[in-house]
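Quick one, T. Sequence first:
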Amino acid sequence: MEITEILLSAQSPNVNIRSAAEQKLKQFQEQSLPIFLLVLSAELSNEKKPPESRWLAGIILKNSLDVKNLARKRELTQQWINLDPSVKTQIRELVLRALGSTVSEARRTSSQVIAKIAAIEIPNKQWPELVEKLLCNIFNQAAQTFLKQSTYETLGYICEELSPHDLEQNEVNSILTVLVHGMSQSEHSPEVRLAAVKSLFNALDFAKTNFDNEMERNFIMKTLKKQEEDQDQDSDTWNLSMAGGTCLGLVARNVGDAIVPLVMPFVESNIVDNDWCRREAATFAFGSILEGPSIEELSPMIHSGFDFLLNAMKDPKNHVRSSTAWTLGRIFEFLHSPSNIESVITPVGLPRIMCVLMEAIKDAPNVAEKVCGALYFLAQGYENGGSNCSVLSPYFSEIISALLYTADRTDSSNFRLRASAYETLNEIIRCFTKSETSNFIPKLLNGIMNRLSQTLRLQIVSIGDREKQSDLQALLCGVLQVIIQKLGSFEETREIILHSSNQLMSLFLQVFSCHCSTVHEEAILAIGTLAYVTGPAFIKYMQEFYKYLEMGLRNFEEYQVCSISIGVVGDICRALDEKVLPYCDGILTHLLRDLSNPMLNRTVKPPIFSCLGDIALAIGEHFERYLPYVMPMLQGAADLCSCLDVNDEEMVEYGNNLRRSIFEAYTGLLQGFKDTNAGLMIPYVGHLLQFTEAIFRDKLRDEAVTKAAVAVMGDLADTLGPNTKIYFSGRTFHQDFLGECFKSDDDQLKQTASWTQGVIGRVLVS
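Structure tokens:
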């Protein structure tokens, strides 16, 4: 049987097909390991093969080289060492070739496979040409962007696998040099620059020798002084100064307090220098080390230097003012919390801060953008203050006016300034208390609706005009979503939304005429929030809205739109309950098709299972007609969880999301059938408990999965009662599972576990 067909069958939702394929793969591996590994490598590198089979080929190949169990890992290492050298050479060439694949899954898994091979061979002085070949990929002028990106990722994985002593110092130097090159302005692709930054993070241990050398350590502090006169006119421009700050920030996050005495002499000796480059570099360096060190370590310096920073917002040089505003934002982000006695912001000092920021927001666009960021984090620190009146309340009117003025500025063609202004406005709204919501939002709601209405009348004569319209509509829909959410959070203000819902819905539906996915995302999110707030009254909009919802559910190419549309289905179900029934046939059809679609991004699939639970809970007994189609998908996904690669962090995260969503689906089903036809779920009890026990024994599960698993056991016992006695009495794992929960520091988890223990206990004595 062709390997492609077996690999695809091994991912089938049908448990019988999947098990048969897994058995064939196991037999192939046991009968002829060299050919098995060679065939997998060929599948991974073959551009004519399906992405799904290539991805799984890479995962199996990686798992044939490394596992967490140390004894088994030694066996796999020896197996590889014992392979015929010609076979190993072919495999190396094939996986290196896969780095240039047009399929992202193939590139990523090949990067990981190369690193696993390198972890075995390089310490044994084998594959000496690997680093040189990877460097050639990067410096090759004709290399595609995705090849460079995957090569940087490979270097990062290699640095993660090896110890600094495994490579020669000249190889370490070459790797560090190429990573800095990847972060520089000469590299135009942001994806490549990001890959280089991430790889540098993994390579920090390799830089120890370089950091021990005072000359090389000082060199990083000097890439900070390499500013360019126009760099801040477009802050996306990557340069040596930004690379130095990024590197310094990564070091600070890793070493914490130890970075402070190393950097502060540079800051103190340059921040008052006559040379603006030195002043800006010192400010930038200080801002770069604020994430990592403790507030106790930083607080004395912040308190003593805070007035200086506020005064620096009047520096004659634009670059210095911009970096100062950015640094203030970093201070507010990491060191500002009213509940912390070490907080750098005090009621006494707040008026001066607000005066400086309100003046600085009128500065040049690049400075104003950083000021918006500073206001954002300043407001965020007060978001959960809990008092009846926010500390920022006296300034809200001025802040709102300043942000709306900033969003309307015409002296900048840079979209980021407008986006930053509206995002900061959203955060200000989130800070509103009940009284502030009543005082400020009604007027703001009308103003934002008028702005959105005006975008519908803009004259569009070019693609650029269309993009500007789409960007502005997306931002305004985002603000309206936050406003709707805030008004809906208080009974006293909910009525405002009910009176405005017709106008809001009309605007959102008109916005759908724009064919931009970003606008669709924001408009759909806003409509989902409107449905949640208006409740059953939303039914009057469903007929007109459904066609757009259906478009979103079908849009697997722009998977973010699809994912958001799925989430909105849940909002609508919670709002309408059984009134959503006329639309369920169409919705279920699209959801099940999405689950079966191999081209849909896998991150969308967990929300689909959660959504199925929302639908079942909303329509109750009417969900019976969908059980024959939904349950095989649900059980197949549960079985698939055991096949995921536990050595891949992204796959572990995906697995946890998938498991949690499966439990959420079962909870919706059980609660939906509870008062009508609970017996429909009895045939699925055994499989559900088997899955739950497997999750209990999985030490990689996160807390959200634990909560969902414990809750579903309680729902099972509560819904089916004595019918589950035979299942719980035959399995004792639930006792240990609940015992583990009672030791948790999470009070909510303890409460859920206590409830679950009670209902299971009643079943067992029934």
